[in-house]
Design brief:
seven-stranded parallel sheet; binds nicotinamide-adenine-dinucleotide; 270 residues; globular; alpha/beta; single chain
Length: 270
């Protein structure tokens, strides 16, 4: 725990609410970028709630490791290695994953390349890569869900947004552009797919020192940040996973088109 971080008070143990894990038994959930960071944690957490996880990542070693961790903990998972920004890859992965249970119940669009740079130094390759995985892949996920969801049950799509989607910061222009698009596309999909029983929401995590994020900000920077976050700590991977699990649960069945800030209050006061 960081020096100025406050311990989380335990919830009162009433009506079993101390354990906030929803029952996701037999939910077929495909997670992109599940090889590390927030995607990895979500994969492990959702598997522990009973879901069958498609662990998709461009890094095949990490994807295999995560699927292995799930299986060795008694869960169910299948590894998919590939660039999920390519439509052919996304659809092939989805087609294969759908064979397991005859449907896809949810896709978590988590994969992203995290890069910051001044606008004058933005390179075409990096711009393309970030737009492709951050924005284009969401269209393929939508098409994959439409193809494979069970029309009686419905489905859920959860996107990873960011507080930078709606505010200007120096050097985050490409990343912010992607997350701005993610935010508005979440709402467009919610409007378009709602009548078909497909809910679409986003979580917007703030400041979680994942492997990718530590490439942008140092450990020192994270320590400093905790001082201006209203809850006086950085985010943890589990904060994000719990929000995702809730959005997937039947208790969230009327939540559609929402961007849930999981950021300790940063978006509320900036
Ligand atoms: N960490 C934070 O503070 C934070 C805050 C807001 C939003 N987010 C969002 O959360 C998501 C996860 O971020 P993270 O911090 O865990 O990042 P991370 O870099 O640690 O993990 C990202 C994963 O995505 C994979 N990936 C990248 N490109 C891919 C591609 N083309 N196909 C398949 N997999 C690919 C990477 O290999 C990696 O395993 C991202 O969408 C990010 O923008 C993170």
């Amino acid at each position: 725990m960081a020096p100025n971080e406050k311990p989380i008070k335990p919830l009162r143990t009433i009506n079993g609410f101390q354990n906030m894990k929803p029952d996701l038994t037999d939910q077929y959930i495909l997670i992109t970028g599940a090889g590390r960071g927030l995607g990895r944690h979500a994969a492990l957490h959702l598997a522990s709630c009973g879901a069958i996880i498609g662990v998709a990542d461009i890094d095949s070693n990490n994807a295999e490791k995560v699927a292995g961790e799930i299986i060795s903990n008694g869960g169910k998972a299948k590894t998919y290695a590939g660039d999920m920004s390519a439509r052919a890859t996304f659809m092939a992965v989805a087609d294969d994953f759908a064979k397991l249970g005859g449907r896809i119940d949810a896709v978590i669009n988590n994969a992203m390349l995290l890069r910051y740079s001044p606008i004058e130094e933005v390179e075409e390759d990096t711009l393309d890569t970030m737009l492709n995985i951050g924005v284009k892949a969401l269209f393929w996920s939508a098409q994959a869900v439409l193809k494979h969801y069970d029309k009686e049950i419905g489905a859920t799509i959860i996107n990873l947004a960011s507080p930078v989607a709606t505010r200007g910061f120096p050097n985050t222009s490409v990343y912010s552009t992607v997350k701005g698009a993610v935010t508005v596309f979440t709402k467009s999909m919610a409007a378009e797919f709602g009548p078909q029983g497909i809910r679409v929401n986003a979580v917007s995590p703030g400041s979680v020192p994942t492997p990718g994020a530590l490439g942008l900000n140092s450990e020192e920077e994270y320590k400093k940040r905790a001082a201006w976050i209203p809850l006086r700590r950085n985010g943890r991977e589990e904060d994000n996973s719990h929000a995702i699990a809730f959005l997937l649960s039947k208790e969230a069945s009327f939540i559609n088109g929402e961007i849930i800030n999981v950021d300790g209050g940063v978006a509320a006061c900036n």
